[in-house]
Amino acid sequence: MWVLVAVDGSADLWKALPMPCVHLIDIEPVEPSTMEGCEDCLMIGGQWVHLRLCMQCGHVGCCDDSPNKHATRHFHDVGHGVVQSFEPGERWAFCYFDSDMIDHVPENVNRSYR
Ligand SMILES: [Zn+2]
Ligand SMILES: [Zn+2]
Ligand SMILES: [Zn+2]
What is the pTM of this model? Predict the structure, then answer.
């Protein structure tokens, strides 16, 4: 699927980019709630393996390899279905609605570690 996205926030510069997930269309850039780690694990003293960033509210949760799976739990709790990797250098995301990987997160909504 192809959709139109604004380049650099300018309405004059619309450009067709490959967008594998329709749920990305409504996504606005969010600031991560914490840079420290999984916010739910930090509260309970848990351990995490990898981190996922909710692209709708900035919730930082842990992946399904982690004992508490807070990223998946966040989806079930509040219905935010698109998370991106919060690992340094990783640009992919995952959509729970589609149960599918999104290989390349558009630059204008990407909020991974640089
Ligand atoms: Zn989707
Ligand atoms: Zn966690
Ligand atoms: Zn969220």
Answer: 0.79
